[in-house]
Amino acid sequence: FTVREANLISVSSAHFKILIFIVVMKLQSAAPGKVVCEMKVEEEHTNRGGTLHGGLTATLVDVVSTAALLYTERAMPGVSVDMNITYTSAAKIGEDILITAQILKQGKNLAFATVDLTNKATGKLIAQGRHTKFIGN
């Protein structure tokens, strides 16, 4: 199973340029409330320093935690209320990373998830995200 997230290729003008990328993740495992995906860091995923871009990390936290939420009995994607990420180390081009999302609690109106991005080879934590979503009516 491959997940592809594609945003417009690129938009340019005299004042700005937005580079959009393609993210390819492979689903490694899924259990109710827990999803693990794998991704290889490619050049288009990096910042000027050649490491995994923080904005892409935030996107991964959002997307994979939502996938874990969809893999629960209620299967509701919800709407983001709060999301924060702590960046602890860098992921370089060519490194494989694991993105592990776990639903901590699903209440009547809110769901809470954590997402760990780790280096597949070393297990070193790259970033940890926390995501709160509104899942009520």
From TrEMBL:
It is found in: Cytoplasm, Cytoskeleton, Spindle; Cytoplasm, Cytosol; Mitochondrion; Nucleus. Residues 49-123 form the Thioesterase domain. Catalyzes the hydrolysis of acyl-CoAs into free fatty acids and coenzyme A (CoASH), regulating their respective intracellular levels. Has acyl-CoA thioesterase activity towards medium (C12) and long-chain (C18) fatty acyl-CoA substrates. Can also hydrolyze 3-hydroxyphenylacetyl-CoA and 3,4-dihydroxyphenylacetyl-CoA (in vitro). May play a role in controlling adaptive thermogenesis. Belongs to the thioesterase PaaI family. Its main location: cytoplasm. It catalyses: tetradecanoyl-CoA + H2O = tetradecanoate + CoA + H(+); dodecanoyl-CoA + H2O = dodecanoate + CoA + H(+); butanoyl-CoA + H2O = butanoate + CoA + H(+); hexadecanoyl-CoA + H2O = hexadecanoate + CoA + H(+). GO terms for cellular component: cytosol; mitochondrion; nucleus; spindle. NCBIfam families: unchar_dom_1. Homotetramer. Interacts with PCTP. GO terms for biological process: lipid metabolic process. It comes from the Eukaryota. One of its GO terms (molecular function) is fatty acyl-CoA hydrolase activity. This is Acyl-coenzyme A thioesterase 13. Keywords: Acetylation, Cytoplasm, Cytoskeleton, Hydrolase, Lipid metabolism, Mitochondrion, Nucleus. It comes from Catharus ustulatus.
